[in-house]
Amino acid sequence: MKKILFVASEVVPFIKTGGLADVVGALPKFINKKKYDVRVMMPNYRGISDALKEQMEYVTHFYMHLSWRTQYVGILEMEYEGIHFYFVDNEFYFAGTYPYGQIFEDVEKFGFFSKAVLSALPVIDFRPDIIHCHDWQTGLIPVFLKDRFSDNEFYRGIKTVMTVHNLKFQGIWNIPTIRDITGLSMYYFTPDKLEYKGDANYLKGGLVYADKITTVSPSYANEIKNAYYGEGLDGLLNARSNDLSGILNGIDYESYNPATDEALAKRYTVDTFRKERFKNKLALQKEAGLEQDKKKFVIGIVSRLTEQKGFDLVSYVMDEICSIADVQLIVLGTGEERFENMFRHFAWKYPDRISINTFYDEGFSRRIYAGSDVFLMPSRFEPCGLSQLISLRYGAVPLVRETGGLRDTVEAYDEYNHTGTGFSFANFNAHEMLGILHYARRVFDNKREWNKIIERGMRTDFSWNNSAKDYENLYESL
Ligand code: ADP
Ligand code: GLC
């Protein structure tokens, strides 16, 4: 039995700001339990709900050096849906209700976390064969493992996988501070290791020292070897391309299931959506404060409101979008103020057409997937994207830019061959997006054709079953 330890900064159901949490929360459940003992380790944030905290059990605690500091490391554990979770406890670092803060706080917080994870292993008597690290917050794990832990017999031979969910975030701060946090010697801060444009870079450390690198779609794995998507690390990723692969994310088909989803006004399946789904549309319009009319063309957005997600394009042609016949736009998202304000402005200008909701609400998000006609996701870049997968599953036709995982999961509608599950455009160009939106609006008038697009989408399979096997093959290759 191979032992695998997943390490991440956010995990569903404990804490979530984006797709990373969904992936790390779901994937372990789908790895073959007969062959692998998969456990998960994450911080014990104050923001984790009391209901979940009550189920945690204290395991042990010890004190750990972090350079000149001596810090408390508590370990808690819990079994949840068949998976063994460990929580690293420290009230100083994990006092926030939100996992992330200012970058200078986060580099110390996750430097501490990465070292604490490794230090805890002998104490909890769990020696993983493979540590599977996710994103920059865990980038120092492969580095620490090579450095101060390698003298200890316990750690010898442990392999590491570094999965990149988003190359944009790397954990960069000045070298003196990072040396002061990590206690790593100057040896590590050269351009072939952690140094990056004069600073220290956690993710780069992970990419240099991990045995294998993965990212969350095949297209993104290729794209990041080019300067446009490479965020300054394309050279390194090219150098490591023999160890780099893309494995497509799935979504949890049990949790995201319109046939059983309790958040919905009306449940439906691929066989009943033609008769039932519009009830969710009417309920959504009501919840969003818009006119209830099933003939309206409802565009849904559920997203972090950041540059990555392509909202520059949306803001550029918002007046034109609002003049599409019968359009209603429902947005659920939080993020950069400029985008929140942009949507607020247009909601003020077109109160009968736009509903802007700047908060986080899991149930509402599900009702948007179940009630919208189109789901808009014009990302500038997209490592994988889960929202378009949830849309396909719930029958909201995705309209996406052809990039990263969007390209790998949404097949463009072809009116001649009657194929395709959504709509897409190639260039990061607002009028190209607008053109496709107009086209989708025309196809929408043909109910039979539209319903077939929905049906094909609902029949696609982006559950974890296939991708979990790809991860198992990767573990075997180590
Ligand atoms: P990313 O991880 O880049 O934000 P993904 O598409 O991979 O993008 O995952 C986003 C996840 O977060 C989806 O499950 C989406 O439904 C959810 N989400 C984003 N914003 C909100 C929100 N305001 N309320 C509820 N869920 C949200
Ligand atoms: C990141 C990416 C997103 C991906 C998610 C989970 O947040 O932005 O595309 O789906 O991680 O891997």
Can you put this structure into words, describing what you see?
With 478 residues, the protein is of the alpha/beta class. It has two domains: 2-250 and 465-477, Glycogen Phosphorylase B (Rossmann fold, 3-Layer(aba) Sandwich), CATH 3.40.50; 273-462, Rossmann fold (3-Layer(aba) Sandwich), CATH 3.40.50. Helices cover 38% and strands 22% of the residues. The chain contains 19 helices and 18 strands. The chain has helices at 19-30, 50-53, 103-124, 140-146, 175-182, 202-209, 218-223, 227-230, 234-239, 273-287, 311-316, 318-322, 337-349, 362-371, 387-394, 404-409, 430-444, 447-459, 464-477; strands at 2-7, 36-43, 57-66, 69-80, 83-89, 130-134, 159-164, 172-174, 195-196, 199-201, 212-215, 244-246, 297-305, 327-335, 354-357, 374-377, 397-401, 423-425. It has a nine-stranded mixed beta sheet with strand order 3-4-5-2-1-6-7-11-12, with helices on both faces. The longest helix has 22 residues, at 103-124. The chain is globular and about 70 Å long. It starts with a strand and ends with a helix. The model has no long low-confidence stretch (mean pLDDT 97). Bound molecules: adenosine-5'-diphosphate (ADP) and alpha-D-glucopyranose.
Describe this structure in a few short sentences:
Helix content is 38%, strand content 22%. The chain is α/β, with parallel strands linked by helices and 478 residues long. The protein folds into two domains: 2-250 and 465-477, Rossmann fold, CATH 3.40.50; 273-462, Rossmann fold, CATH 3.40.50.2000.
